[in-house]
Amino acid sequence: MRFRLGYVAMTLSLEDCSPSGTLTYKTFSNLPEGESRINRLRKITKKNLINTMRILRYNKAMNIPVYRLTSRLVPLATHPELANWDYALDFAEQLKEIGKFIMDNDFRISAHPDHFTLINSPYDNIFVVSYRDLDYHVRLFEAMGLNDYRYKLVLHVGGVYGNKSDSIKRFYENFSRLPARVSKRLIIENDDKSYNTYDVLKICQTIGRPMVLDVHHHNCLLEPSELRDIIPDIFSTWNTEPFPPKIHFSSPKSTREFRSHADYIAFDEFHKFLDIAKDVGEDFDVMIEAKAKDLALLQLSEELAAHGDISRAENGDFLM
Fold this sequence. Notes:
By secondary structure, the protein is α/β, with parallel strands linked by helices. The protein contains 12 helices and 10 strands. It has helices at residues 25-29, 35-62, 87-90, 92-104, 124-143, 164-177, 180-183, 197-207, 215-221, 227-236, 267-280, 293-305, and strands spanning 2-8, 66-69, 108-111, 152-156, 186-189, 211-214, 246-249, 284-288, 311-314, 317-319. An 8-stranded parallel β-barrel has the order 1-2-3-4-5-6-7-8, surrounded by 6 helices. Helix 8 links the parallel strand 5 (186-189) and strand 6.
């Protein structure tokens, strides 16, 4: 069984390397009218893209093949007042360079639209805004030349809105409204409050999309021991995908703040999950969702390499 490790958006190992520089609309609107406004956005976006490339080169050097792009590459990209700004054209060369590097190195790249992206809202204006955000992410992938649907967007089911059955039905209805260029990118994740592992598995089986198992979220809602019975079905939702199943893993910050992510991964918790996954015997990838970002991945990598039943091929690549 092979598993690989990845991390989210930001590396703490490189100085001045945030890919998520931003600008509020209030600050933007207070700038002098004309090109100076757009130029301010262009300057921030350019630095975000430069830093993204730095991070990808770092990942290659560190042999970390799994990575989640920040959703904040282009500030204010989805704001209706900037609908006419063609950021993909402005940064066509840089975006193509990033995409080529990703493809040349066979990186597994994803993105995770923010929590306000809710396609099952009973309010159509919320769906419209959510679609705009999904379209922004897809436009970036397309501008990078990442036209293969293996490059995914992680999405939660959404809110309950007083009636879970109706909200799931509305998810199906609105999912069918999405164009294929968006819907084929989506993979659905269980959350820590509303839609548990079993809810999301059924939804994914119904719409024919892969499921992302978030182990921490599962533990917030259900007993961890129940994973052993359901993982084979979760992994089978990936059967037609070029990449293996992907899970999210984080450790709770504390008993009191159980839902919050800790800085690092608790090795014993991760190893317990490996024991469960080993029974399935399938390869999979792990997105480490820890506050210490790549430092958490590297620490876990060292702990795994020191364990007798695990063989490390690279920093982010293991056999068990």
